[in-house]
Design goal:
This protein is of the alpha+beta class and 212 residues long. The protein is 34% helix and 24% strand. The chain is elongated.
Length: 212
């Protein structure tokens, strides 16, 4: 009985010793620390002052540094001359005070030209013109502004219009012309091209002074 009791006592003491050892290991500081709260080592500190250009970027996602071309003066497009079977370059000009009607009518003309396979070279807007309506007082000579009218103009440029098809197209356009919208057809020229740009008298005076 004594020998059995001694063996049980020895095994029990060994188990208690093992448990105490395990507890001391658990209470010790862990070897792996959190990357945020852990202390930085000497090897990590040497990268703090190094540049980070190009890190995390891919070459195919970067924009290429393309050389921008210098914008020169816009040149006039070549003017086609009229032949026996076709006109040259024609400007169909639409103007009116209501911009919505002018835009819708120019869209209708463009769709009509596409339907009849008429070549449309350009479609652009001219600078808006402002007109002031002045009235004089009944008793006095002073003038006051009664209304301000804005004229909106749109131009669609046709090329090589067939002479047989032209009267048919003009008849359709005149029948579908809305009220308050004016329609005119002119031959394209250099003067018509210059009307597209706003005049700068101050700049012209400076340029003339420089040239003198």
């Amino acid at each position: 009985m004594n020998t059995v009791f001694r063996k049980l006592q020895v095994s029990f003491t060994q188990q208690v010793f093992a448990l105490n050892k395990a507890l001391t290991l658990c209470r010790a500081t862990p070897s792996i620390q959190h990357p945020v709260y852990g202390t930085a080592s000497a090897n990590d500190r040497q990268f703090h002052n190094m540049p980070t250009h190009g890190i995390g970027s891919w070459r195919y996602l970067l924009r290429k540094n393309l050389q921008r071309k210098k914008k020169g003066k816009r040149q006039i497009n070549p003017i086609f001359e009229a032949t026996d079977t076709a006109y040259g370059t024609l400007n169909v000009q639409v103007s009116g005070y209501d911009m919505t009607l002018v835009e819708h009518y120019i869209q209708y003309i463009h769709k009509l030209c596409n339907h009849f396979d008429i070549k449309v070279a350009l479609c652009y807007a001219l600078p808006t013109k402002t007109t002031e309506v002045m009235l004089m007082q009944e008793q006095g000579t002073k003038m006051y502004t009664d209304a301000v009218l804005k004229t909106h103009e749109r131009v669609i440029q046709l090329r090589s219009l067939n002479t047989l098809l032209c009267p048919v197209i003009m008849d359709v356009l005149l029948k579908n012309q809305p009220e308050g919208v004016q329609l005119s057809v002119k031959e394209h020229s250099e003067a018509e091209y210059k009307v597209r740009f706003k005049a700068r008298p101050e700049l012209e005076e400076l340029m003339s002074r420089i040239n003198q």
